[in-house]
Amino acid sequence: MSYTEYDRAAQYVHLLSIEAWRPLRPRLAAALARVDPATGPVLELGPGSGSGTATILATVPDAPVVAAEPSAAMRAVLLGRLEEIAGAERVTVYPGGAVEVPLPERLSAVVGMHMVGHLPPQDRRALWKALAARLAPGAPVVLQVQPPYTAVPVPPFPPIGVVRGAVRYEGTGRAEPTGPDSVRWTMQYRTVDGDRELERVVTSYDWWIVSAERLADELRTAGLDVRVDGDLVIGTR
Predict the structure, then answer these.
(1) DSSP secondary structure letter of residue 193
(2) 22, 64, 121, 171: which sits with the fewest CB atoms below 10 Å from its CB?
(3) What is the CA 125 to chain-centroid distance, rounded?
């Protein structure tokens, strides 16, 4: 899967996710606090622009990181940002997603933020089983779920905006059901200078609905012990 829907949106994704990552970063760090880097690499699924990657590098010193990102546009942002992140020499950026990346024989942790809904249910279940077989004892799988948790229309939300220099970058989105377990998101991004719109980008993608409880059940079926922390689902061997 190439995730070409990010081709034009990639320039906005990092800027507009900064605020969301402020409270998420310490929660991810806490979930990874006991990871033993001697037991294998950390696998990061869908790292996007690298906010989670930076947290992994800071929290798990010395561990190699395999970052599997299917979007070429997002990889460009990720690779550019890694040049400024301490420990980046430990990161291998793989040009493929969760179902394409060759899994290491042993893993000290797995992280998947803002990406689980990209995976169809059958791919999710197969992936959890494959990961469980490779986790070192005590190694966590840290996943995040995102609304909606049922197939209902989601009206446009107020634009999220960030000012850089003289312009404002902003984004909003809405979703429509496409089936009993899926929606299609339509995202709109703009660059504006005062009242003047410099650019408008509209893109869409399919999203498979999964609640924290359902995801926890899938991980338990794969043989993991599970705890739920709000929108984070954490499974361990």
Answers:
(1) E
(2) 22
(3) 17
- The structure tokens listed for 24 are 């998420």
Beta-bridge partner residues of 169: 162, 191
Return the closest-CA partner of residue 47 out of 13, 23, 16.
13
> What phi, psi does 191 have (nearest 5°)?
-115, 125
| Closest of 3, 14, 16 to residue 53, by C-alpha | 14
Consecutive H or E run containing 110: strand 109-112
Share of the chain above pLDDT 70, in %: 99
Tell me: the pLDDT tens digits for 26-35?
999 999 999 9
- Identify the burial level of 172 via C-beta atoms within 10 angstroms of its C-beta, where 0-12 means exposed, 13-18 middle and 19 or more buried: middle
pLDDT at res. 5: 83
DSSP per-residue string spanning 134-166: TBPTT-EEEEE--S-SSS--BPPPPPEEEEETT
Q: DSSP alpha helices (H): ranges in the chain?
A: 10-31, 51-59, 72-82, 121-132, 212-221
Taking the C-alpha atoms of residue 199 and residue 58, their distance in angstroms, rounded to an integer, is 36
Look at residue 175 in the predicted model and tell me its pLDDT.
98
Q: Is the pLDDT of residue 51 over 50?
A: yes
How high is the pLDDT of residue 3?
72
